[in-house]
Amino acid sequence: MTDIQFKVAKTVREAASLMAAAKGKGRILAGGTDLLVQMKAGMVTPGTIIDVKKIPEMVSITETKGSYRIGAATPAAVIGEHKKLRKAWPGVVEAINLIGSTQVQGRASAGGTLCNASPAADSVPALVAAGAIVTIQGPKTRRTVPVEKFNTGPGKTILKAGEIVVSLTLPARPKTSGDAYLRLIPRTEMDIAVVGVGVSLTMKGDTCVSARVGLGAVAPTVLLVEAAAKALTGSKLDAKALDAAANACSAACRPIDDKRGTIRYRTKIAGVLLRRATAIAADRAKGISRPAHSQQGH
Amino acid sequence: MSNPKYKWIGTRPDRPDGADKVTGRARFAADFNLAGQLIGKVLRSPHAHARIKSIDTSKALALPGVKAVVTSKDFPEQADLTVPAGEMQVNLRDVTRNIMAREKVLYEGHAVAAVAATTEAIAKQALSLIKVDYQILPHVIDVAEAMKPGAPVLHDHLMTEGAKPPATKPSNIAKRIEFAKGDTKAGFAKAEVIIERSFTTQAVHQGYIEPHAALASASEDGQVQIWSTTQGHFQVRGFCARLLNLETSQIRVTPSEIGGGFGGTTVVYLEPLAVRLSQKSGKPVKMTMSREDVFRASGPAPGGNVHVKIGAMKDGRIVAGECTVEMQAGAFPGSPVGPACMCSFACYDIDNVFIVGFDVVSNRPKVAAYRAPGAPISSFAVESTIDMLCQQLNMDPIDLRLKNAATKGTKTAYGVTFGVIGMVETLQAAKDSPHYKTPVKPGFARGVAAGFWFNVGADSSAAAHVGEDGTVTVISGNPDIGGSRASLALMAAEELGVDYDKIRPVIADTASIGFNFVTGGSRVTFATGLAVVNSVRDLIRDLKGRAAKTWGVDPEGVIWENGMAKPAGSNVGTFEPLTIAQLAATAGKTGGPINGHAQLNVTGAGPGFGVHVCDLAVDADTGIVTVGRYTAAQDVGTAIHPSYVEGQLQGGAVQGIGWALNEEYIYNAQGRLANPGFLDYRIPVASDLPMIETVLVEVPNPTHPYGVRGVGEVPIIPPLATVANAVARATGLRMLDLPLSPPKLSAALDAPRPLMAAE
Amino acid sequence: MAKIHVTTTINGAPTEFLCDPSQTLLDVLRDQLGLTGSKEGCGSGDCGACSVTVDGRLVCSCLVLAPETEGAKVETIEGMAKGDKLHPLQKKFVEMAALQCGICTPGFLIASRALLERNNNPTETEIRYWLAGNLCRCTGYDKIIHAVMQVAAEMRESAK
């Protein structure tokens, strides 16, 4: 039997050194909603489990001049209860609040989900659309990286030995901005996204002056779809622009056929959700509130 | 809505096991532990089909903490003998191979060895030390493929029973069955409209939330005790006795509370292994399945291919029906193709019917019963075809069904002539329901379908014991899966004329009450209810005798009224009535303890009919179906405890909705199950559904003193076609293959199709 | 494997236990502390039968490592009734037949209480989404949702 160690880190530096000392067998325990399932299935056998939830920086949300820093291990439920963040980044918060059930929300974190590196992760496309920055702590140094550069394949990240994710930073943005995240699942809850689309827009009157689009579950990693953003930017989000953006999303897809969806279906839905998410994001940018609980946007 | 004829029947008191179940006190199988128990684990096949060349367990046995290892060598060979298991039949030669593979593994998850060790971790490690040498064989998952010449044959001895002409070589077709009535050739010749289609459904799992679990303790003198989660502890006893060459009196099985079953826990998986491990180790052995084990290695319900042809006159009168059902049996023969065939057209009075069924093995886990086994599959096909007929003739779907509904005296294709049944009343009740009378909301469409189930009687025993204070314990032997304790207590209270809370219903172990057939087939409230009523009548006979003795009169001179013994008339004499409490207080002087008992083989189960109505919307861009309103109407005989009757209708309907929309066993190219968990085997969650409205139609069953009909099976039958029919009307697209999952529905919606005026 | 000593509070009672580093809270509750009211339906957070609260937060105890509960307050179904007095949700579930087999019931009760503590006026849709992580295969959810709505209404009435 392998000898598993359980360690509680009190600081980010301590967590990073514990990771380094574990020599590749360390696993960070944030919410544990992926790690425990993988351990039970025998997919991973950690040497050291490092609980980071006692590190204040990793479980808190702070605002600086309109920019929000979300501790990587902050439970999704806590993020959902943060009124100012919810108002500033409704799409990001909704996306994080779609990870699993209420019970899972009590534990799952945006950082953990990111490090689990599933291409279908809810939250990641919205973070990509938001232009979130990942802060990474190594044994000696800190570095930052745009969220879309973080995952390199299913289950794979750019983290080097001894590195951990500390926080995610959402940039400040103009008041006339809005974001939205939609995912398609067969049921209304409890499923892994078949496709997930995050859209973040800044409007000037009826014109979209900047846009970012994140697309999940259609390729080995969540994609930043620049062609879709380009199609939206400068347009009045008219039918032609939406067609072009939807087509760009479908064209960006490199999906697989599996138990959750087909190539044909994923490719089509990427475009459908782009249109719907864009409409919600645009409304929000214009100050029209749109409720949650219609993840497919219908 | 209490029943004016009765004081207790039709009321809704708290269930006797309510407090235990809301406080966590109720003990389910995995909640039982014994001092010094070992943990048992099963090694399962990673292959869909392979010959076992050898199994080396020596390293596992040598691991410190491992106390016993078993393989098929530890279980005696069984005769080719078919016995009932729940609503289905099983062959003992196959059962022993299903609990532990012998010559071959026949599906992924098939048990090949089991260990018992002091901890779960050691048991798991021991499994990894068992070396199995497999010769991998070609596998076949799909029924149509399995029936083709040249398909990999699972069993070299399997010759098609009932084949025409007789089979000359082994195949995967275990059986061919046929039912006929009238002359379908003539019927179709007369028909003005003929509709013919082929349908498929996929294997689905009962999805009970409690994984299988068993605790067994074998002692040196040959006695065995078992605690397990089962719908039939007498069947657990019977199977273990046969599979382990024990006498039934040596085995005592205590049923735990049971966390769902729906037919799936009427057979044995872990119990014989736990007993054998306990015998070999001399210690109690506890075994539980993981959720993955449950999906991979317990019996799901089959999928099937159904071909239907219906001929009708332009006025909607159906004049001929044909149906061919090819059904998955799993790795061993014994699919519910029989009931599937029999139920297919049973809702209707049709002069000419011809039905053929095939029982087909393939490299899947052996199927088990699931609520009305087989019926939802054939009914989906027939009810979809009837809906097409309604569309083509532009007739209201309830009106067309009313025109063809079976009634008293209708002879079914399988030979039975119906007695008093409620098909017409149920259709009428659905038509009169608030739901059906409300226009369909914009964006939604409405589907309707019906369903039929025989319901079951069979063997039941019951006893009624009077305590010293005159309160009564009613003892029966069927695990309470959905509130049957309450129903049995209500019938006992009504019969005895005492308050419901003076009756304590208890479910006894196999050594404490006579034999009972499984909880299944919707038989408990009907058949065991009848045994309870008869045991109470026996008790009343005893009580009247005690009163007679007290008064010094003939027993015939005593009547029983409102829970008291009274003189039958003034000629008997003038005596103050005697209550049960008074009779109990003097029991020692009048003959000792006062008990009643009954045992019987119950026949005369009243068939049940259901009619469901569903309003739903289809998102044309995504293929997502949203159920907006749902109503289940059913002939329930008499609703003993209406809340639990409604609960059966609601739960069954939702299982059927899941079957229609998203549930399915998905296999990969290697023949391995790709979705063995609740994440990707998608049973409906709370947010998927509206409230499920119910209409209880009471057409009493004349063969039962309180008119009881079974209610648990019927409600899972209509939803498959109800949903599909609503989707057809919402989209103009007739979906012939379940489930109607979003990718499949979306692909069909986007596919080029000819405009079909009728749809 | 070195055991970890954990000091925690379970249903208001100070509780100490020794556990393996990789043992779940559910395993400790059931196998070591005899609190078998929390059920294991899946072990992967997909069914909700093992729902408990940890420091007031609703979680699946199968997805919490036991050592994580050091210093925490854990509430399980066994602590829901106060003495011989059932919680209004427990009473209403029995009264309104919101259970059939009962295996999912402890999880539904713990989750429903967590909802009503946050929001005593939830819509039917809010209840359905809050409880989407609790699977019930017997009831079709109808009577469960009705019971929670009824308790919420009575809570609002008595709060007046």
Could you characterize what this model shows?
The complex is a heterotrimer of chains A (298), B (759) and C (160). In chain A, 32% of the residues lie in helices and 24% in strands. Chain A is built from eleven helices and 14 strands. Chain A has a five-stranded antiparallel β-sheet. Chain A has a four-stranded antiparallel β-sheet with strand order 11-12-13-14. Chain A has a three-stranded parallel β-sheet with strand order 1-3-2, covered by helices on one side. In chain A, helix 5 (90-96) runs antiparallel to helix 8 (124-130). By secondary structure, chain B is α+β, with helices and mostly antiparallel strands. Chain B has three domains: 18-25 and 457-602, 2-Layer Sandwich (Aldehyde Oxidoreductase, domain 4), CATH 3.30.365; 32-137 and 210-259 and 265-297, Aldehyde Oxidoreductase, domain 3, CATH 3.90.1170.50; 304-455 and 606-750, 2-Layer Sandwich (Aldehyde Oxidoreductase, domain 4). Chain B has a seven-stranded mixed β-sheet, sandwiched between helices. A five-stranded mixed β-sheet of chain B has the order 9-17-16-15-10, with helices on both faces. Chain B has a four-stranded mixed β-sheet with strand order 18-26-27-28, with helices on both faces. The two termini of chain B are 41 Å apart. Chain C is built from five helices and five strands, in the order ββαβββαααα. In chain C, helix 2 (88-95) packs across helix 5. The N and C termini of chain C lie far apart (55 Å). Chain C folds into two domains: 4-79, Ubiquitin-like (UB roll) (Roll), CATH 3.10.20; 88-159, [2Fe-2S]-binding domain (DNA polymerase, domain 1), CATH 1.10.150. Chains A and C meet through strand 1, helix 2 and helix 6 of A and strand 4, helix 3 and helix 4 of C.
